[in-house]
Structures are given as structure tokens and as C-alpha cells.
Write a structure and sequence with these properties.
Layout (H helix, E strand, L loop, with lengths): L1 H13 L25 E4 L6 E5 L9 E8 L8 E8 L4 E5 L5 E6 L9 E6 L8 E6 L6 E5 L5 E6 L9 E6 L8 E6 L6 E5 L5 E6 L9 E6 L8 E6 L6 E5 L5 E6 L9 E6 L8 E6 L6 E5 L5 E8 L8 E6 L8 E6 L12 E6 L4 E6 L2 E7 L12 E4 L2 E10 L9 E13 L2 E5 L15 E3 L1 H10 L5 E5 L4
Parallel strand pairs: 25-33, 31-32
Antiparallel strand pairs: 1-2, 1-24, 3-4, 4-5, 5-6, 7-8, 8-9, 9-10, 11-12, 12-13, 13-14, 15-16, 16-17, 17-18, 19-20, 20-21, 21-22, 23-24, 25-26, 26-27, 28-33, 29-30, 30-31
Length: about 475
């Protein structure tokens, strides 16, 4: 295998990098969400000054966001910026030099996979420049591939269950002080929050849970020597559906520290990188927000104390998440912060990574995930005299089955007693979204103020939503 890697390295040196030296387009200071095109910005994190910005994909591309990484992938002694496609575009990797000029691109997976990629750049093999570790976002299998800077695949393997299409998150670091980096994989969305550690050829070394197994949050991972002991620690955060609790573990799974990066009611995930941003010889944990928050990047000491306040606002006006990486991009002795617009809503919805909308005039309920409509069902809301409340609410309580009853007085025709009402989500007082088995008049207003769904539709909504999911009820036709 080592001989094969050496041959690949020699071949890569003989192949020219295709270049494009077009001048990068200027990006507006304030991002207008309705006109968003995914951009990359490079900051001096210590001063907060913007050093460079560019669009990594042409205007004709349909890509809805990017993920970023950085490292010396061609062995020239300078770090390159590596950009991977997000949603809605074939899985491309593009490599840029420190002038933001495109020097190579390649496709990491099949044409029809358009769920987006996560990447990590690391020097996995002593005889090669840094390589690009790729993995699918949620909606893809846990299929990890490793490429050199020319786009030649070195190896590939599956983490976790290959039949589960939850995606996978990746990083790499020297976990045992042997001078050789290991690969760390975090489980994907709606999976047990587990990490797996592999050697650089994809052989499993160890796995362990990092959060409560009942919370199917998945895990975002980062390997970094944050306590300056010559050995990388494993830094984790729930991928989604749980508060952004940052934990630091040893390679053996021993918890060293934990802290919350955001208020506990925020569950839209974060992005992780690290770097010595203030030149104090210690790496800071750098956190980019996930979907539904403004694009303020935060810097933390390993113990959770905030550093460099105020922080960098990567893309003012944009709430679609910020992918982050760091490296000394221009060899000036100062770590630069590289940020990318991670997820762009095709319909300009950025309120939260999950939200429910109910249009009373159309008798429809809609579920949105990261600004994209994923469910749309017919409903029945409140009849005359029993209106469904209009306004902005949140899912307060979820009950798989309950009895709903109300007595308005003897022989009142509005009295009801309904046992075993399924898939109940209360959003305001005793008003709820739930399944209805006692009528089939969906599309008309027949309830006592609750939002009635067909049983299978109610179950899907119930299983998808979490406590705290915003519920916006309105009438689009006045």
C-alpha cells in the first residue's frame, strides 16, 4: 500500500493543475438573502478585518451552500482553500490558491448525489502532501473517501451502518502521539451520537457514545491539540436536535471538559475548527453557527471561556450557517479564518432549521427543514365559534396518545370525549396539532381550535418535530 501511495504521489507531481486566474467578483458587505449566492470570506480573526472574499462556484451553478477546508494539498509549501458543494449540485471539490484562483476541481461521488459534502484537509500520509477527506451530508450514506490534491482517490471505507443515509462528519488528528494522524467520524443526523476512530486506511480502532443515546442528534467532530500536550483531543457537538454542548474527550473516551456555545434552546447545530488565533501558543476552539442564527463566529478557550469579543460577523444578514476552517493562508505567521455560506434557503426562509407553518385560509400545514419545504398536508382547523389561534408559537409538549374531552353543559352538541387521540403536539394552552380518526372532512374547518391531520400525516409531523419547533399560524388570503 505504501508503494502504491508513493506511485500516486509521483503521478500527481507530473500532472499539471488546471488554472483559472479570473479576478474574483466583489461580494456585497451586507448579504441580501433573496439574492444569495454561496461565498467564501477570509478574515484576520484577531483584528476581525476581512482579507479576501470570492465566489467559489460560477453564477450558473445551482449550488445552495458550501463547506470549506484548508491545507497544503499540492506540496508547494502554501495552504490552499478547499471548497465542497452543498445542496442541489453534483458533488464537486474545488481547490483555490491564496489569490482565490481556481487551480483544480474534481468530483467526489456520483452525479446524482446532490445532498452536499463535508470535508476535512489533513496530512494523513507522511510521504504525501495534505489530502482531502470527504463525506456525504445528511441524506447520504457514511461513505468516507480520501483524495490527493489532483483528485485521485487513495482509499475509501464506510463508517457506521452503510444502509443508514444520515451522512457522516469527519476530522483527523494524532490521538496517540505516534506522529500518524487518525480519522475521526461522527455519526450523522438522526443517529445515535457516537464517534468512531479509524487508522488512515479506514480500519476501525475504537468507538464510543458522546451524548445520551436516546437523543438521535448525530455528532459534529473535530480533532485538535487544544491543551497543548502534543496529542489531539476529540471535540464534539450535537449535529442537530440538541443544545450546542461542546465536549472535549481523550482518544479513550474520557470527558475532559464541556460548555454550551449558545443558549440551550438553540438546536440547529454548529461547525467546528481550531487555531491559535491570538499567537499565545495555544489553540482556540472556533465555532461557526448552524442554520437559524446570525453568522457570528465565536472563539473559545478549551475551558469554554470566550476569547476575542466582539467576534467576527462572517456574512451580515445571512442566517444559513457558516462553515469554518483555519490556516496560515498567506505565510504571514498569522492564522486566517476561512468561512463559507453553508446552507442557502431556495425560498429565503432562515427563521429556524425546523419550522412549521399553518395556513388557515388554505387548510394546509407545511414543514420546513433548513429553509426547504419537506412536508405539505391537508388539515382541518377551528370552525366558527372555535377559531384556531393565529400567531407565532412553539411546540411545547409532545404526547404520543391522550384523551381529549370538553363539556360545555348538559346535552350541548359541542361536547366531546375522544380517547386515544394520537401524535399530539401542544403549541398554545390546550391547542394542539394531532391526528384525527373521528372525521374525514379534511380541508374544511371542523375542529374546536386544534389542527387536525390524517393519522399517517400526523405521525410523520410528530416524529419530525421536536420540543421548541416554531409554529407560525396565519391566513394568506384575507
Amino acid at each position: 500500500m505504501k508503494k502504491a501511495l508513493l506511485i500516486l504521489f509521483i503521478i500527481s507531481l507530473l500532472l499539471p493543475f488546471p488554472a483559472s486566474a479570473a479576478t474574483p467578483e466583489l461580494i456585497p458587505t451586507i448579504i441580501q438573502p433573496a439574492l444569495v449566492r454561496p461565498a467564501v470570506r477570509i478574515f484576520n480573526p484577531f483584528s476581525g478585518l476581512l482579507e479576501k472574499e470570492f465566489y467559489p462556484f460560477p453564477e450558473t451553478s445551482q449550488v445552495q451552500g458550501v463547506n470549506v477546508g484548508s491545507g497544503d494539498v499540492n506540496g508547494d509549501g502554501l495552504n490552499e482553500i478547499v471548497v465542497a458543494t452543498g445542496l442541489n449540485e453534483k458533488p464537486l471539490i474545488r481547490i483555490f490558491n491564496n489569490k482565490a484562483e481556481l487551480i483544480n476541481e474534481f468530483q467526489a461521488y456520483a452525479d446524482n448525489f446532490k445532498k452536499g459534502l463535508t470535508i476535512f484537509v489533513a496530512k494523513l500520509y507522511p510521504n504525501l502532501p495534505a489530502v482531502i477527506i470527504t463525506a456525504p451530508n445528511e441524506g447520504g450514506g457514511p461513505h468516507i473517501r480520501i483524495f490527493n490534491g489532483q483528485g485521485i482517490m487513495i482509499t475509501e471505507f464506510f463508517a457506521f451502518d452503510s444502509a443508514v443515509y444520515s451522512g457522516v462528519n469527519v476530522s483527523a488528528g494524532d490521538l496517540n502521539r505516534d506522529g500518524q494522524l487518525e480519522i475521526i467520524a461522527g455519526s450523522g443526523y438522526q443517529s445515535e451520537p457516537k464517534i468512531q476512530i479509524f487508522d488512515n486506511y479506514g480500519h476501525l480502532i475504537r468507538e464510543f457514545l458522546v451524548y445520551d443515546k436516546k437523543v438521535k442528534s448525530g455528532v459534529t467532530v473535530l480533532a485538535s491539540d487544544v491543551n497543548n500536550d502534543g496529542q489531539s483531543e476529540i471535540i464534539t457537538s450535537p449535529y442537530m436536535d440538541a443544545a450546542a454542548e461542546i465536549k472535549t474527550y481523550t482518544a479513550e473516551g474520557i470527558l475532559l471538559n464541556k460548555f454550551n456555545a449558545y443558549p440551550t434552546d438553540y438546536m440547529g447545530g454548529v461547525n467546528l475548527t481550531s487555531g491559535d488565533i491570538d499567537n499565545d501558543k495555544n489553540s482556540e476552539i472556533i465555532i461557526g453557527p448552524g442554520f437559524g442564527l446570525d453568522s457570528q463566529i465565536k472563539f473559545f478557550a478549551p475551558d469554554g471561556k470566550i476569547k476575542l469579543n466582539p467576534n467576527v460577523i462572517a456574512f451580515p444578514g445571512f442566517n444559513g450557517g457558516v462553515s469554518v476552517s483555519s490556516s496560515d493562508f498567506d505565510n504571514d505567521g498569522q492564522i486566517e479564518l476561512i468561512s463559507g455560506m453553508q446552507t442557502i434557503s431556495p425560498i429565503n426562509k432562515y427563521e429556524a432549521y425546523k419550522n412549521i407553518e399553518i395556513d388557515i385560509s388554505k387548510q394546509r400545514i407545511y414543514a420546513y427543514f433548513k429553509g426547504k419545504k419537506i412536508m405539505d398536508f391537508i388539515i382541518s382547523t377551528g370552525k366558527n365559534g372555535f377559531p384556531t389561534p393565529v400567531g407565532k408559537f412553539k411546540v411545547m409538549t409532545k404526547v404520543p396518545k391522550t384523551t381529549m374531552a370538553r363539556n360545555y353543559g348538559p346535552d350541548n352538541p359541542n361536547n366531546y370525549n375522544l380517547p386515544n387521540v394520537p401524535s399530539v403536539m401542544y403549541f398554545y394552552r390546550d391547542y394542539a396539532i394531532h391526528g384525527a380518526y373521528w372525521h374525514w372532512r379534511f380541508g374544511t374547518r371542523v375542529s374546536h381550535g386544534c389542527v387536525n391531520l390524517k393519522l399517517p400525516d400526523a405521525k410523520m409531523m410528530y416524529n419530525w418535530a421536536i420540543i421548541g419547533t416554531p409554529v407560525n399560524i396565519y391566513s394568506s388570503i384575507k
